UniProtKB/TrEMBL annotation, chain A:
UniProt biased composition (Low complexity): 9-26
Name of protein: Oligopeptide/dipeptide ABC transporter, ATP-binding protein, C-terminal domain-containing protein
Segments for region (Disordered): 1-26, 290-326
GO biological process, any: peptide transport
Record key words, sorted: ATP-binding, Nucleotide-binding, Transport
PANTHER family: D,D-DIPEPTIDE TRANSPORT ATP-BINDING PROTEIN DDPF-RELATED, TRANSPORT ATP-BINDING PROTEIN
SMART domains: AAA (SM00382)
InterPro entries to which the protein is assigned, alphabetical: AAA+_ATPase, ABC_transp_ATP-bind, ABC_transporter-like_ATP-bd, ABC_transporter-like_CS, Oligopep_ABC_C, P-loop_NTPase
Stated family: Belongs to the ABC transporter superfamily.
Ranges for domain ABC transporter: 29-280
Bias kind Basic and acidic residues: ranges: 302-317
PROSITE patterns the record matches: ABC_TRANSPORTER_1, ABC_TRANSPORTER_2
UniProtKB/TrEMBL annotation, chain B:
Pfam family, one: OppC_N
Gene Ontology BP annotations: transmembrane transport
Subcellular location: Cell membrane
Residues annotated as transmembrane: 29-54, 111-137, 149-171, 183-202, 249-268, 288-309
Keywords: Cell membrane, Membrane, Transmembrane, Transmembrane helix, Transport
Domain ABC transmembrane type-1: from-to ranges: 111-309
The family this protein is said to belong to: Belongs to the binding-protein-dependent transport system permease family.
Superkingdom per UniProt: Bacteria
Keyword Mitochondrion in record: no
Protein's name in the database: Peptide/nickel transport system permease protein
Membrane topology of this protein: Multi-pass membrane protein
Gene Ontology CC terms, in alphabetical order: plasma membrane
Primary localization: membrane
Amino acid sequence: MTTASTAHEGPAGPEEGTGAAGETPPALMTAEGLTKYFPIKGGFPFKRTVGAVKAVDGLDLVVREGESFGLVGESGCGKSTTGRLLARLLEPTAGTITYRDQDISHAGRKELAPIRSEIQMIFQDPYSSLNPRQTVGSIVGAPLEINRVNPPGGREARVRELMDTVGLNPEHYNRFPHEFSGGQRQRIGVARALALEPRLIIADEPVSALDVSIQAQVINLLRRVQREHGIAFLFIAHDLAVVRHFSQRIAVMYLGKIVEVGDRRAIYERPRHPYTHALLSAVPEAELELAEAEDPEAGADAPKERTARRERIRLEGDVPSPSDPPSGCRFRTRCWKAQDRCATEEPPLVRIEGNAEGHMTACHFPEAGTVLLE
Amino acid sequence: MSSDTQVAAELVGRSPGQLMWRRFRRDRVGVVSGCVVLFFFAVGLLAPVISWLYGKDPQTRYGQIEPGLLNEFGYPVKPNGGIDGEFWFGLEPFMGRDVLTQLVYGIRTSLFIALAVTVLATLTAIVLGITAGYLGGKADFLISRFIDLLMAFPNQLFFVAFLPIVATLFVDPREETPTYVRVVSIIVVLWVLGWMTLGRILRGATLALREREFVEAAKVSGASPWRIIRKELLPNVVSPMLVQATYMLPNFVTTAAALSFLGVGLVEPTPDWGRMFAIGAEVYRADLTYMFFPGVAMVVFVVAFNLLGDSVRDAFDPKTNR
Ligand SMILES: Nc1ncnc2c1ncn2[C@@H]1O[C@H](COP(=O)(O)OP(=O)(O)O)[C@@H](O)[C@H]1O
Ligand code: SF4
Ligand SMILES: [Mg+2]
């Protein structure tokens, strides 16, 4: 890929996020046409497949080395399924997943073994993600044990070190998960994900189950880990507030498809897709400011993008069923700009007129790129 | 120094098993019924010692050897079934054997059979239930239909009909069936029809656990299915397993007793709890006392075991406290 995506229009500062020098890091994980249909069984007396939940339906994305990539969308739009597909916990129905030039779309457990240690996951539910019958020591040490990693000084020492890294008392090595709070449990999950020094961590809504007061602490921990260890993150969230100060590039997902993707500034300052606008308007002003206050670095490297009098968009109705998505553009049933063409022709995810380099939008009648700038 | 050890204890933390044990210890009914159950097991285990201390054995026909114990109709001369300082629980009519040692050895036989069946049924339930739950798909379908099929069997009828057949698998029907063959066939028949309830419970529990994120975390790290079953699933099904096993065991005791009562279980001369009821039913008009001790022992045993099962369940799951 060629360099220089300084084609930023508007009041842009120096290029931030991916490759500060304009150099795009190589792709770490690539998904092309990724599809997952869950069969719906029904019928009497013999169960047969009567339909499919199209949880992920032809999704393309690239996570580059060391970058933090955000994946945002309402609940039920297929984010977790995407994360599980990329972690190869699920078998894709179609499409390819490439990890560092290796096609792992249908690789079995044995084939995946060498790269298992490079891709780790952090889960949403701190209660379900830790085995209640194991001590913290064995939970965090399990990845080492499974992969027969023998760090110098022994596994226990390494686990204690990891506990220290994530802000847990290493002396709690022999404690059980039920003795920890939600936030501490999530730290245990982070320590487990770090144990093998992965290159990519898929974090599926890692803070959405936590108290708001705890969320910022865990987010800051993840940011620190991401920067210090240079780990690439696929950070899944259901709103744009959390990824706002975590991800350099963000993809917005709706009903199994990516509708808009771009770097942070493009998404927050110059969103083009109506759905992105709707998601942005749902982010409370206070939360954006709070986030910045807690995160001085973000305040420094992001221009003041307080979108003071942002328009309020209330999305009508519910997300349509993924088993029978609308024809053409899937967002059209809730889109205020929808026209006849939207029902017949599916908008491709492309760099539309007026978009910066790397900013792609799937919409026939996109919003003007400057709406959110006063 | 004591504060040091206290700090150390705090840092070690309490496992869910330890917490369960603490809750159980606070449950008075549970502790008492647990002691009763232990008492029965001790009696079974120590039957020879009891017999030796007491100076009688279950085979000697005291009533026939010593004159003056049984009358001309074969019933004990003394009132209350012949209870006295020598024969504490009385004498068996006709045969004239000692009831106490008969009962003690009968409990020993019954508990041995029930324990063996419980262990086998639990192992079968673990293997088939967890396989069905974890693998899902075809394996689950086959195992679940197999469970349905076995559950549809009319148990008692099956036992009565098949016990003799099972025995002939081991020996020629024209020969005398050795005791161990009878014991083995009772165990096999009870086992084959005894594991399904627990199997279903474990299948359901595994199905739910399989979706838990800690199993996915193990998979993401590359854990083998065997490791996931051993380290992630099994420790989490210990509670339903223990609870169900405590309900299962007294059930097997009473079923085995029923088989002996119906005449397809153990035969003379093996002392057997259930057969004492058969004898008691024959003689109850003339000698009601004979039935008393085996009957009371059986009721106490079954009630204590079921109360223990309830307490174990409550201790494992404090939310379901009555
Ligand atoms: N294992 C599964 N079987 C059937 N349907 C599923 C399964 N997992 C997810 N789905 C369905 O796929 C859709 C997307 O789910 P999910 O990926 O969890 O969304 P999100 O994480 O964005 O909330 C939902 O409609 C959900 O019901
Ligand atoms: S393609 Fe049409 S319906 Fe879809 S988002 Fe754009 S304007 Fe709305
Ligand atoms: Mg989700």
